[in-house]
Amino acid sequence: MFFEDFEVGQVFTSQGRTITETDVVLFAGWSWDTNPPHTDAESMRDSRFGGRIAHGMLGISVAMGLASRLGVFEDSSIALLGIDEWRFTAPIRIGDTVRCRVEIVGARATSRGDAGILDRRFELRNQHDEVVQEGRIGLMVSRRPAD
């Protein structure tokens, strides 16, 4: 899809993805974020979460991956412009299955006119349809090429 194909109000919902023990362990390893909420099952057993939880940044990464798998942004994507107003509203637990809902909340042409800016509202929801993370992610996309 190109800039001209998007409309304010369009909603895209991804497939689900289950967050595994391996996801959390690997993310802790490559991010160096080994804080106890993610890596210490014993200390987290009696915590407010009742067990380990996934990293917040792992959730954002999964949301971006799920949005990519939609296939609607990939052919025209130029640049990610920023992550704004992102909130972590509930924990993501090992074994949760999340899906990403992306709504186009704004669209405008760039000043050069050769691309457009999409303002997208993301919601990462778990298997209980609870929003676990949400925010806005701007994306610059190509306009349709002239024939």
Automatic annotation (TrEMBL):
Matching SUPFAM superfamilies: Thioesterase/thiol ester dehydrase-isomerase
Domain of life: Bacteria
InterPro entries from the UniProt entry: HotDog_dom_sf, MaoC-like_dom, MCH/BMMD
Limits of the MaoC-like domain: 9-110
Family per similarity comment: Belongs to the enoyl-CoA hydratase/isomerase family.
PANTHER family for this protein: BETA-METHYLMALYL-COA DEHYDRATASE, MONOAMINE OXIDASE-RELATED
This protein's name: Dehydratase
Organism, scientific name: Intrasporangium chromatireducens Q5-1
